[in-house]
Fold:
Amino acid sequence: MGPPGAVPAEGGQDCADLSVLVRCAAGYCDGQASAMIRYVLGRFLSLVLSLVVASIVIFAVIEVIPGDPASFMLGVNARADTLAALRAEMGLDQPLPVRYFAWVTGLLTGDFGNSWTYKTPVAELVSDRIWVSLPLAIYALILSTLIAFPAGIYAASRRGSAGDVTIMGATQLGVAIPNFWFAMILVLIFAINLRWFSAGGFPGWDNPMQALKALTLPAIALALPQAAILARVMRSSLLDMLGEDFIRTVRAKGLSRRQALWRHAVRNALIPVLTIIGLQFSFLLAGGIIIEQVFFLPGLGRLIFQSISARDLIVVESVVMLLVFTVIVVNFLVDLAYAAVDPRLRRKA
Amino acid sequence: MKAIKPLLTAGALALTAGLASAQTDITVAIQLEPPNLDPTGGAAQAIDSVLYSNVFEGLTRFEGDGSVVPGLAESWEISDDGTVYTFKLHDGVNFHDGTTMDAEDVKFSLDRARADDSTNAQKGLFAGITDVTVIDPLTVQVTLDGPNGMFLFNMAWGDAVIVAPESIEDIASNPVGTGAFTFADWVQGDRLELARNENYWGDAPALENATFRFISDPTAAFAAVMAEDVDVFVGFPAPENLPQFEADPRFQVLVGNTEGETILSTNNKMPPFDNKLVRQAVAHAIDRQAIIDGAMFGLGTPIGTHFAPHNPDYVDLLANSPYDPAKAKELLAEAGFADGFTTTLKLPPPSYARRGGEIIASQLREVGIQAEISNLEWAQWIEEVFKGKDFGLSIVSHTEPMDIGIYANPDYYFQYDNPDFQALMEELNATTDPAGRSDLLAKAQTIISEDYVNGYLFELAVATVAKAGVQGLWVNQPTAAVDLTVVSWAE
Amino acid sequence: MSRGLIIGAALSVVFVVLAALSFIWTPFDIETLNIPNKLKPPSGAHWLGTDHFGRDILSMIMMGARTSIAVALLAVGIGMAVGVPLGLLAAARHGSLLDELIMRGNDLVFAFPSLVIAILITAVFGASAVNAIIAIGIFNVPVFARLTRGAALPLWERDFILAARVCGKSAARISVEHILPNITNLMIVQGTIQFSLGILAEAALSYIGLGAQPPTASWGRMLADAQTLVSIAPHTALVPGFAILLMVLGLNLLGDGLRDWLDPRIRVARV
Structure:
């Protein structure tokens, strides 16, 4: 067992790369470049491993779901021979490992297979649905940012004021509200009573204004709790920044608190905020299931939900894998971006 | 006089405007989206809801009142022994892709449905067919292995529609039929569009375009109708909201009957339900009216046997099992379960089952029976209850028309095995004269009612909510269908 | 003590008391349905009205509080019981392959969309309160593992730990005797936050029918049952919604208040 916290930074050993050699010669050799390469490679390796493990887990879990897909499709009056014929058609008579490898090879070559129920390629289904889920996630993210940034900055700049207390109180409510309940209330008020918006459904992107309008209530329902979290993060990281030395320095140079806040603190406070936004984005992409259900939007979440109850396993597997893939890759990119920005991080890691 | 003329002109203008603006498109919502568009390859009722009669037609077809009328076959002759049906087809019928519909297509469709590798969900409908012969392009002869009083009825099912070999390959995503509407577009997860078939062989429909939308969530359904996002909702999922629509002049509410006998399915082979006294006790423990009021908000007709009350052959046997918890307790004591017992109550997703199940569990608790509820998805229900027969009680609506024959199959999931009843059903199948059939059906209903095979709850009702101006909708659901061919807007 | 802490503690206590009380007494029996008495607005007899089966909603809220608290508490328990030891282990073996495995495993769990996995779990094992606990608990594990490791790492470099090492204490003993007591406050604060998230998750799961099964009352299912009734009998949807809102609000205020009170430097994860 190595002593904790004392990972030796082995510098300079792998300076094979020419540019590194040059920098070594120039006296900059602290192992940074090679450490960077090793870091990236390590991260990449674990990315690949994660994906392999994820694919096995997803396949295993989904395959043991009770309920025969063929029986579901053919209903209660189906005869045994009819069921057998359909199972053979769907490839369900093959052994599990064979089906796993067929699935994974398919994924690698971009062939997601054919949906059993819809009888159309999964890739087509997904690409249709993603044009609902992705814009919805982005819309919600923009809304939540638009609400959270001003609220967080205002609260931080007037810490302890009535405005700050009100905003923080509101964010406590925002964090505590169940979003599906909020969605129900929104529908009741704005669709049924006021009839400003349609109660749900998605008209397609042929008419972008109509499409945006249809996504507005769902986006608000999704955005509000996220905005509450984001506003709190924004406020607290701003307050942290305001306590930092460099802010004191610029204030000593004569900048007012507000000027210091806007010119220096906000920019620096963005790093933790952007992390949260990144995390929220993947949450919004996959987590809209219930909201998509309330507003009957034809998005990815509802596709998964419907496919599970229809036992359209191939769709479930592929869509869940796609979501996990997205999250893992986004995390990978975030890690890299951090490492690029802050060398300390990769040494710690 | 001068003043009157402009008025008249204005009136005439208004009139023409009115005529011109009579709406020719409609948006119809149903609960479930069809998984694919092949009515001959899956059990999903939603396929028929969208396509039956609109896109696909069979030799015969159902009318809104449940009667069977000529479809693509304009007439037929039945041989004296009842085994050979000779169908005369309509002349000049084309599929939507322009190919003609003739006897070869009929032969293809029927042979395909009964083939070994057929994936037809109702293959049993075609079981008796031994041969299909093309006599000439407009005449086709179907030979059965014995007389079958139900054959013309069977041929009206959505699973027996006529398809063409030219377009069968893509039928699941691009259905090509002979009906009054052609398939136009399907945005999966959201809507499906039909357009008027300008070359339809029959009477042209009033509508030019129809859009189906799929809304299973009851709240969303309510909101969509209230917000007038949809013009019609067939099979509205939340009966509790109907009074609000009835009170609103913008809407009309049609309540009709279905072929769905909703029963408390009982596993007749699993102790203690193998004891008739226990089943009888359960029957007396159930308060049907409370279930209809509590689960369906009053929608539904109580039944005392497995038969549709609107059928002329229905026998009212409610007197066999009135609500009487005291008697239920006595019967349980007599059966040796004075302290009650514990069993399972496995419920599929529809609200009649989920809500009805909670009510029944509470009613059974009153007489000492602990029914542990587990809510299942359909796929699980089919696996555990229907195929696995691993259940004590379940609630399900048997929506196939005229399905009392399931009680003659001892392997059917509720496992009722009564040789007398089986003999009776064989006699029924061989009987073609209406009076004799009526008699046998009455006997059959009485046997299963007095054997307390299942708890008979109520006949499922169907509610259609539509905008006030829509006319020609089916009120009843003799089969799962939204027949738009005669639907129009009032001017 | 801050005002938030007091309000939060008060709200939390109210719900815990209601839940505890339900074991011995509720205003009405909720197992007996009274259908003719359905959808009555709040009145002297039924303070919060009745639901679609004529049951007393206050009694349902009390029983539902019991379900929510039990599910969320056990889910946090799972998260702590598994996550904290993993985090301690990872910190003790910092930089080793084991550490890397644990942390990558954490990332992997985080990468799965939690609601989807919960749905899959219930699809495999059936819908029940126990499976809801497991589904929520799994996603609590990486939260606690990561937090524990993060808090333990700097401690390992502190002098008192070095002293203990010099004395020849094993890493396991040090973790338990010296590290753990120093991160207890942090665990309490994060535990409160996860508890409130657990309440929300339980509500969401039972709203889509995957939580506790009837006749066990649950707030999420009360909302699901009420959603078509919202325009006829708004109280049926408003009451359970506010119950969730207040309980979660109370726990969050309590968590934040505890943090400020116990140790203002503590940082909690709230995702």
Chain A has one domain: 3-346. Residues 122-157 of chain A form the longest helix (36 residues).
